[in-house]
Amino acid sequence: MGRHNRRPKVCPQDQYIDVSADRRSADGLGVAWRLAKRGRRAQMTGMRDLTDSASAGINPPEPRHYPGPNWIGLRALYAKEVRRFMKVGMQTVGAPVVTSLLYMLVFSVATTGARAQAGGLPFVVFLAPGLIMMTVLNNAFANSSSSLLQLKMQGLTQDILTPPLSPGELTLGFLLGAVTRGVLVGMVTWLCVIPFAGLWAAHPWAIAYYGLTACVIMALTGILAALWAVKFDHLATVTNFVIMPLTFLSGTFYSVARMPEPFRTASRFNPLFYLIDGFRYGFIGRSEQPLALGAGFVLILAVVLGLTVWRLFAVGYRLKT
Q1: How far apart are CA 90 and CA 81, in angstroms?
Q2: Is residue 301 part of a domain?
Q3: Residue 215 belongs to some domain of the structure
Q4: Which of 137, 181, 197, 221 could staple 143 via S-S, CB 3.0–4.6 A?
Q5: What's the first-to-final CA gap in the chain, in angstroms?
Q6: pLDDT band for position 42 (50/70/90)?
Q7: Confidence band of 39 (pLDDT split at 50, 70, 90)
Q8: Parent domain of 264
Q9: How many CB atoms lie within 10 A of CB 168?
Q10: What pLDDT, on a 0 to 100 scale, did the predictor assign at position 9?
Q11: Directed axis angle between helix 291-315 and helix 167-197, to 10°?
């Protein structure tokens, strides 16, 4: 075997090799070599596998606790909800207004020359508050339900669960976004209806109370429907078989007193009837039911719905699975 193929007697890459005592004493490298060998062994002994955190008594870091409401997160969620429907303003604001004007035009033409009186008022004056409220109800429901269901369908629920937002802040964020859309669409519809009906506020407090309460109730109902729904077909079922019948059977286009039994009695259990009746009172100064009864009924309903939504957000109902 050639000289160049021979391995040297001392191999620095082997950490466990030992050298003879005469070589260590001869060249003075014995002490340094022995210390280096001990250091390598100590290093290898110290490189143990990481122990299990549970067996070692090591707990993961606790989540951060924010004192008081998270105003920054709440403002961000509200801004997201508003920008979402304002990006398609022609669809979310313009289309409902056009639909209401078409209703107004059709009924105005249909009642021309006929007995167009409702409670001693021109029919278009009686109809206009109901159309405005119907627009408010539908848009408040559509905003909260479509926003939350889109997050679920696209697998983006972690965007609202990961940030430090409490169940109450999630409820309030979606609620305020839907209320903003409902109020905006209602105000635009009112301005567009004035040339047809000459509708002015007789009792502004009733308009504000019943209008805001209607937005709150329908926004919370939309959140409940979106939490329950798994796909858009489920949401369409709620809209077509629950929201629409309640809206059309609530006295939007007629006086409930003219309905036959048992629909007249059933309308007394319809919360949308009290909302429309109180809202119409704010414009024409007349109502079909005592205002105190309707105001108390819708307020209790709003509180119950709010607590229910808060609880479902707290347990993560159909959001974490």
Answers
A1: 16
A2: yes
A3: yes
A4: 181
A5: 71
A6: low
A7: low
A8: 72-105+119-315
A9: 15
A10: 53
A11: 140
Phi first, then psi, for residue 117 (nearest 5°) are -125, 140
Q: What is the pLDDT of residues 44-97, one digit of tens each?
A: 555 454 455 555 566 766 666 667 888 999 999 999 999 999 999 999 999 999
Rounded mean pLDDT, 272-282:
94
Residue 302 has pLDDT above 80, yes or no: yes
∠ CA 35-40-42, nearest 5°, is 95
Instruction: DSSP letter for 290, please.
Output: -
Q: Is residue 254 part of a domain?
A: yes
pTM of the model: 0.78
Strands 121-122 and 117-118 come out as antiparallel
- Count other Cβ atoms within 10 Å, centred on residue 37: 15
Q: Assess whether pLDDT exceeds 90 at residue 107.
A: no
Whole-number Å distance between alpha carbons of 233 and 85: 21
> Which tokens hold the place of 179?
């209320």
Measure the CA–CA gap between 216 and 179, rounded to whole angstroms. Answer: 6
Task: Classify the C-alpha dihedral 168-171-177-178 as positive or negative.
Answer: negative
Q: Alpha-carbon dihedral of residues 216, 218, 219, 225, nearest 10 degrees?
A: 150
Number of structural domains (the chain) is: 1
Check residue 19 and give its pLDDT.
46
